[in-house]
Amino acid sequence: MQRLVIGIFIALLAIIPLIPATPEFWINQLNTIGIASLVVVGLVILTGVAGMTSFGQAAFVGMGAYATAYLSTILGYSPWIGLLAGLCIAFVVAYVLGQITLRLSGHFLPLGTIALGLIFFYLFGNMDFLGRHDGIPGIVSIEVFGYSLLKARSIYYLIWIVVLIAICLSLNLLNSRTGRAIRSLKSGASMAESFGVNTQHYKMISFVYAALLASIAGWLYAHEQRAVSPSTFGLNYGIEYLFMAVIGGSVSIWGAILGAALVIILRDQIQAYTPYFFDEKVNVEIVIFGIMMVLILHHARDGLWPILARGVNKIFGDKTASVNTNLRFNEQAPALTQRPTS
């Protein structure tokens, strides 16, 4: 039944831009949700599955955005070259940071990613060739087979195709032997190592994979917004991405979309109505999101997606449907390997 619901959801995504009466604001909102969902899918793998917390995903988004903005707008290269450059930069930075921090335990990785977010925020804002705090405006549009994706309705399909591809790849990854090894990390390294799992190697795969998805999100963001500035890639956005993962479901791949949609829609509504009740300088959304986090961690630690999935199964009377919220991603990982018999 969940497959049917997800199929309907994908069909609606394809139809919405084709309806002339669909407001342009909705299209832009869905584009923003899709871009954020890419980052959150990576966080589900990294935090929800592998058990490693990162506050620095916004920095990787910035790497992808600034790489394509500089190469395509300042130097005149194709945006597709900018995509490759952003992926290479994110890979190198994630690999180097992973080599330093992933061998450590406890709070060292979260602290390292916080430092990463702060470092790149100030780098983006103080480099002359990146426009300092003004950023880079007038970014060129992506072209696919000579067709310009300048309008929001045009790039919409590219964004959501990339999101769906990322979800399929993530589900396949989690159901592979590599995915089973990654899932074993959350239970503790000692048990996984006793089965011959190279925990450092699989931690690195998770960390780099999440960074690459964030970089692709940055590439899409730059060409969808057609401007980049450091304010979009600060530490507060890294925390917001974590909010999305926890609210939607930190162990649910499809929950990434739900979490991103809820946070983005709620944030816009709060910003619209806050001036009627509070001073405009008051950051009310952070307070509300903090309260939501506490309530969800207390009452729904797996996020809202499993609750939604169980509700759908009850409505349609699908008693045989599994409450597995990731379709093929099972919570209990099978044995990683078998010991040789003597």
From TrEMBL:
<dbReference type="InterPro" id="IPR043428">
    <property type="entry name" value="LivM-like"/>
</dbReference>
<feature type="transmembrane region" description="Helical">
    <location>
        <begin position="204"/>
        <end position="222"/>
    </location>
</feature>
<feature type="transmembrane region" description="Helical">
    <location>
        <begin position="31"/>
        <end position="51"/>
    </location>
</feature>
<dbReference type="InterPro" id="IPR001851">
    <property type="entry name" value="ABC_transp_permease"/>
</dbReference>
<feature type="transmembrane region" description="Helical">
    <location>
        <begin position="104"/>
        <end position="124"/>
    </location>
</feature>
<keyword id="KW-0812">Transmembrane</keyword>
<dbReference type="GO" id="GO:0015658">
    <property type="term" value="F:branched-chain amino acid transmembrane transporter activity"/>
</dbReference>
<keyword id="KW-1003">Cell membrane</keyword>
<dbReference type="GO" id="GO:0005886">
    <property type="term" value="C:plasma membrane"/>
</dbReference>
<keyword id="KW-0378">Hydrolase</keyword>
<keyword id="KW-0472">Membrane</keyword>
<protein>
    <submittedName>
        <fullName>Metal-dependent hydrolase</fullName>
    </submittedName>
</protein>
<keyword id="KW-1133">Transmembrane helix</keyword>
<feature type="transmembrane region" description="Helical">
    <location>
        <begin position="155"/>
        <end position="174"/>
    </location>
</feature>
<dbReference type="Pfam" id="PF02653">
    <property type="entry name" value="BPD_transp_2"/>
</dbReference>
<dbReference type="GO" id="GO:0016787">
    <property type="term" value="F:hydrolase activity"/>
</dbReference>
<feature type="transmembrane region" description="Helical">
    <location>
        <begin position="80"/>
        <end position="97"/>
    </location>
</feature>
<feature type="transmembrane region" description="Helical">
    <location>
        <begin position="242"/>
        <end position="266"/>
    </location>
</feature>
